[in-house]
Amino acid sequence: MKTFARMLLLPLSLVACVGGPEVVDETGGVVDDVTVRTSGYFTVTRDMRRCASPMCGGYFVAPVNASAARCADGTSAARCYVASLDLAPLGLPQAQRDAVAEGFASHVFYGRIAAVSAHTFGVFSAAEAWRSVDGALPSQSLARVSTTGTTCTFIPCDRLAMQRVNSTAASLPIVGVDTAALRVSPEVRDAVLGGATYDAGVLVAGVRSTMPGNPSTVRVPFLRAAQAFLRVSALDDGRHCGAALQSTLATATERLLYTSESDAPFTWFTRDAWRAIPSDATLRRAVGAAADAPVERITLDYLLRNAVQNYDNTLDQEHRAARFRQLSRTLQRELTNITVFRVGTIQIRVFVLGVTRCGTVAGLETLSIET
Q1: What is the total count of domains within the chain?
Q2: Which of 47, 128, 234, 304 could bond 110 through an S-S bridge, CB–CB 3.0 to 4.6 Å?
Q3: Which CATH number characterizes residue 289's domain?
Q4: In terms of domains, do 124 and 142 share one?
């Protein structure tokens, strides 16, 4: 498998070296002089005052990055009192919603402060919950990092976009997120890096800085993460089949290309009639290959051995490697008896197949060009 050397020609792709010197803070202050009047991003703390409910004993909600919010009584304040939290709009199962309610102090919420007809104390209605990866609330400027607003069509992206939450300022380009300061597991780190390459993105608290690029006379922007927050979504058993599995794998391979002497996307492959990994002859017939076409079987780890590594030591390649590590975990979680077939020569069709929870055979197909 060839390296990614050809991408050195891209102006922003392979430029942000991890741990590069001479960082310059371009972020500015954490708090903007703005008032959140409708929906926005908030932190929640418990009201510890002692008086009769609902006047006391509820919660204080404070807007992130902003100086004030419009409270339920129509006034503006740096933090607003609400009598209760409404987590139903999150759309989570009750047990998971209860867990968010219990651990609210380690979450950032997107929602709004609503007035309640029975009193003026209001309620905070949460539409999104973002869980801190280290249990702490943001201590630096918080931004949503994603592919939204960029020209990213495949990973590594030429650039990502960071948008300060609760801000009307335009999004800013970055080449990637440096997660070296996060004290998290490899799986969580990959979730942060991988999440940034989706339109939904991740929340990252940190400083937008610059470092020498390629050539070194060019300085390029990146985000040095101090904290990160992952979107809370409904949990499932992690084993799918049929359309649900197809959707899961489509998400896992979104914008991902398998690199050989060319780049090829991953596509869905299934044979519902198969109840076990096929023989070489059966696979040849199923995919229309010649009866004497060579078939090689390799492991998933061997197939992805280069894709999961960041040989160039750059931020954009680390995002890509994280996505491939996530893809490997997804395939191993969803499928059993995974077998990788390489069929043909030069233009080699690659099939990653396994047995689904329903007992059928499914997986992914891609192409490897090897002259």
Answers
A1: 3
A2: 128
A3: 3.40.1460.10
A4: no
pLDDT confidence bin for 133, thresholds 50/70/90: very high
One domain, residues 275 and 184 = no
Predicted local confidence at residue 334, as pLDDT? 96
Alpha-carbon gap, residue 132 to 143, rounded angstroms: 13
AA letter at 269:
F
Domain enclosing residue 361, as ranges = 242-369
In a shared domain, residues 95 and 119? yes
pTM score: 0.89
Residue 251 and residue 217 in one domain: no
Contact 254, 364 (CB under 8 A): no
* pLDDT grade for 30, boundaries at 50, 70 and 90: low
The whole-angstrom separation of Cα 105 and Cα 59 is: 10
DSSP reduced 3-state for 4: coil
- Given 129, 153, 170, the domain boundary residue is 129
Query: What pLDDT, in 10s, does the model give residues 186-240?
Result: 999 999 999 999 999 999 999 999 988 777 788 999 999 999 999 999 987 778 9
At 268, is the secondary structure helix, strand, or coil? strand
Burial (CB < 10 A; 0-12, 13-18, 19+), residue 243, is: exposed
Residue 322 falls inside a structural domain? yes
Burial zone of 103 (CB within 10 Å; 0-12 exposed, 13-18 middle, 19+ buried): middle
Backbone angles phi, psi at 227, to 5 degrees: -150, 160
Cα separation, 340 vs 303, whole angstroms = 8
Task: For residue 1, tell me if it sits in a domain.
Answer: no
For 311, residues 6+ apart whose C-beta sits below 8 A from its C-beta are 3, 4, 317
Q: What is the mean pLDDT of residues 172-183?
A: 96
pLDDT digits (tens, 9 = 90+) for 229-284: 999 999 877 789 999 999 999 999 999 999 999 999 999 999 989 999 999 999 99
Q: Mark whether 326 and 298 lie in a shared domain.
A: yes
Query: What average pLDDT does this structure show over 64-79?
Result: 95
Does 259 share its domain with 352?
Answer: yes
Q: Tokens representing 111? A: 């929602």
Q: Residue 22's CB: how many other CB atoms inside 10 A?
A: 9
Strand partners for 236: none
Give the contacts of 368 (CB within 8 A, at least 6 positions apart). Answer: 1, 258, 260, 264, 342, 348, 350
- Does 194 map to a domain? yes
